[in-house]
Amino acid sequence: MSSENLKLDNQICFPIYAASRLIIRSYQPYLDKLEVTYPQYLVLLVLWEEDSLTVNTISKKLILNTNTITPLLKRMENQNLIVRRRSSEDERKVVVSLTEKGISLQYAAQEIPVQLGTKLISGKLTVPEILDLKSKLCDLIDELAHLEK
Question: Both 95 and 138 in a single domain?
Fold first, then answer.
């Protein structure tokens, strides 16, 4: 009893999932040098863009639940990459800020996107195709986010 719509090859989710896992795996050697995980790298990217954000803001930007990000932030604080403190304006909010160590990793991480981009471009896809794919994935993310509301 086989149904066409239940075949793995007919699922849109699987190629996205597999590509995500393979991309994250490609990041790993670079992130190992920084001694951070991929989710920690994402938090750092957000904070390098704008430091001192609330946990909720970081969660929204990364599309993560606060119960997922809180343990991640605790580990980053233990690594001295960030500090967490209660907001002086609203004690219910926790503000996350980079430490000197967290700031210094930005310099070391600058070449990661370039190096990974070079690997991607050397394959079957061109730069315009990769940028188009990114744009379409962002559209898909927006569409799925609206469905959750």
Answer: no
Alpha helices in the chain (DSSP H): 13-34, 38-49, 55-62, 66-78, 100-109, 112-121, 127-148
pLDDT for 37 beyond 90: yes
- Residues of the domain holding 130: 111-149
Q: Where are the alpha helices (DSSP H) in 50-111?
A: 55-62, 66-78, 100-109
Closest to 54 (Cα-Cα) out of 15, 26, 89:
89
> What is the number of other CB atoms lying within 10 angstroms of the CB of residue 52?
13
pLDDT in tens, 92-140: 999 999 999 999 999 999 999 998 888 878 778 888 998 999 999 999 9
How many domains does one find in the chain? Answer: 2
**Same domain? 87 vs 52:** yes
